[in-house]
Amino acid sequence: MKTGPGRAASGRTASGKAAPEKAAGKAASKKAAPRKASTKASAKASTKATAETPVAGEPAAGTHASPKGAAKPESRLAMVRRARKINRELAEVYPYAHPELDFRNPFELLVATVLSAQTTDLRVNQTTPALFAAYPTPEDLAAAVPEEVEELIRPTGFFRAKTKSVMGLSAALRDDFGGEVPGRLEDLVTLPGVGRKTAFVVLGNAFGVPGITVDTHFMRLARRWKWTTSDDPVKIEAEIATIFPKSEWTMLSHRVIFHGRRICHARKPACGACPIAHLCPSYGEGETDPEKARKLLKYEKGGFPGQRLNPPPDYPGRPAPPPGAST
């Protein structure tokens, strides 16, 4: 094939110089090179930005998620701060938190607490007036006829075992402690039917000695709030004691128990109406719809067995129940 005049088949001129079109093409290629590198840099930056942008509902990189869906394990410090904030907010919700057993002295509180096992505080409060009218002192109860005591406390359930316990502890108080309830944990737990939970109820509410009462409500909420993973009351007590100052132990117990009875129930917690839902890592275990959750609340009279209809006189600031609460 012949080429045009003065032009070789290779695209070069007769003088050996590159054809103008080729030269222009190479120049254009060199000018385009920086743009190509820029495109790669942009793509890389875009990929990095995409990787750093959190997916909806997930925490940003390098941050901790909220307790409702933590992507990273919560640190001990973060847990302690959250636990103490829960306590502070519960103090605002339940400024009138108190023991819900009726008593006039340490002996009555001790007996009432033993009788409260496997029954409600309301049932105990309905039963103890007749019991204490008949046997007002440890000496009286220790000398009672067992069958007569059984009949008086029958409504509380397990009345034979409870009769043995209250008469046994009364005899021990008479024989070993001069008829007085001791104000020390190590002495209280030697009494028949008295464990650490009962002892701390008596110490905290009759003697002003701080203690953590780990009942079924406290145990359930401590686990839901990730304060502990244990199901052993003694271990839970020890773990909680490291989270809160000693001065808070008794009132903390009342607040947690109040919340467990009124809102954070065992079977149907009212998550959607819970005032501390934003601090709860177990949010969603119960009803989250606000309207449906409000119907599960157990406030005021008729709400749950064992709740006082009114707080004691020294707790005048009881807030009104929220709209829709059972009354």
TrEMBL record:
<dbReference type="InterPro" id="IPR003651">
    <property type="entry name" value="Endonuclease3_FeS-loop_motif"/>
</dbReference>
<dbReference type="GO" id="GO:0006285">
    <property type="term" value="P:base-excision repair, AP site formation"/>
</dbReference>
<dbReference type="GO" id="GO:0051539">
    <property type="term" value="F:4 iron, 4 sulfur cluster binding"/>
</dbReference>
<dbReference type="InterPro" id="IPR023170">
    <property type="entry name" value="HhH_base_excis_C"/>
</dbReference>
<feature type="binding site">
    <location>
        <position position="271"/>
    </location>
    <ligand>
        <name>[4Fe-4S] cluster</name>
    </ligand>
</feature>
<dbReference type="InterPro" id="IPR004035">
    <property type="entry name" value="Endouclease-III_FeS-bd_BS"/>
</dbReference>
<keyword id="KW-0411">Iron-sulfur</keyword>
<feature type="binding site">
    <location>
        <position position="280"/>
    </location>
    <ligand>
        <name>[4Fe-4S] cluster</name>
    </ligand>
</feature>
<dbReference type="InterPro" id="IPR005759">
    <property type="entry name" value="Nth"/>
</dbReference>
<dbReference type="InterPro" id="IPR000445">
    <property type="entry name" value="HhH_motif"/>
</dbReference>
<keyword id="KW-0456">Lyase</keyword>
<dbReference type="Pfam" id="PF00730">
    <property type="entry name" value="HhH-GPD"/>
</dbReference>
<keyword id="KW-0479">Metal-binding</keyword>
<feature type="binding site">
    <location>
        <position position="274"/>
    </location>
    <ligand>
        <name>[4Fe-4S] cluster</name>
    </ligand>
</feature>
<feature type="region of interest" description="Disordered">
    <location>
        <begin position="1"/>
        <end position="76"/>
    </location>
</feature>
<feature type="domain" description="HhH-GPD">
    <location>
        <begin position="115"/>
        <end position="262"/>
    </location>
</feature>
<dbReference type="InterPro" id="IPR004036">
    <property type="entry name" value="Endonuclease-III-like_CS2"/>
</dbReference>
<protein>
    <recommendedName>
        <fullName>Endonuclease III</fullName>
        <ecNumber>4.2.99.18</ecNumber>
    </recommendedName>
</protein>
<feature type="compositionally biased region" description="Pro residues">
    <location>
        <begin position="310"/>
        <end position="327"/>
    </location>
</feature>
<dbReference type="GO" id="GO:0046872">
    <property type="term" value="F:metal ion binding"/>
</dbReference>
<dbReference type="Pfam" id="PF10576">
    <property type="entry name" value="EndIII_4Fe-2S"/>
</dbReference>
<keyword id="KW-0378">Hydrolase</keyword>
<feature type="compositionally biased region" description="Low complexity">
    <location>
        <begin position="39"/>
        <end position="53"/>
    </location>
</feature>
<dbReference type="GO" id="GO:0140078">
    <property type="term" value="F:class I DNA-(apurinic or apyrimidinic site) endonuclease activity"/>
</dbReference>
<comment type="similarity">
    <text>Belongs to the Nth/MutY family.</text>
</comment>
<dbReference type="GO" id="GO:0019104">
    <property type="term" value="F:DNA N-glycosylase activity"/>
</dbReference>
<keyword id="KW-0234">DNA repair</keyword>
<dbReference type="GO" id="GO:0003677">
    <property type="term" value="F:DNA binding"/>
</dbReference>
<keyword id="KW-0408">Iron</keyword>
<feature type="binding site">
    <location>
        <position position="264"/>
    </location>
    <ligand>
        <name>[4Fe-4S] cluster</name>
    </ligand>
</feature>
<keyword id="KW-0540">Nuclease</keyword>
<dbReference type="InterPro" id="IPR003265">
    <property type="entry name" value="HhH-GPD_domain"/>
</dbReference>
<keyword id="KW-0227">DNA damage</keyword>
<feature type="compositionally biased region" description="Basic residues">
    <location>
        <begin position="28"/>
        <end position="38"/>
    </location>
</feature>
<feature type="region of interest" description="Disordered">
    <location>
        <begin position="300"/>
        <end position="327"/>
    </location>
</feature>
<dbReference type="Pfam" id="PF00633">
    <property type="entry name" value="HHH"/>
</dbReference>
<keyword id="KW-0238">DNA-binding</keyword>
<keyword id="KW-0004">4Fe-4S</keyword>
<keyword id="KW-0326">Glycosidase</keyword>
<keyword id="KW-0255">Endonuclease</keyword>
<comment type="function">
    <text>DNA repair enzyme that has both DNA N-glycosylase activity and AP-lyase activity. The DNA N-glycosylase activity releases various damaged pyrimidines from DNA by cleaving the N-glycosidic bond, leaving an AP (apurinic/apyrimidinic) site. The AP-lyase activity cleaves the phosphodiester bond 3' to the AP site by a beta-elimination, leaving a 3'-terminal unsaturated sugar and a product with a terminal 5'-phosphate.</text>
</comment>
<dbReference type="InterPro" id="IPR011257">
    <property type="entry name" value="DNA_glycosylase"/>
</dbReference>
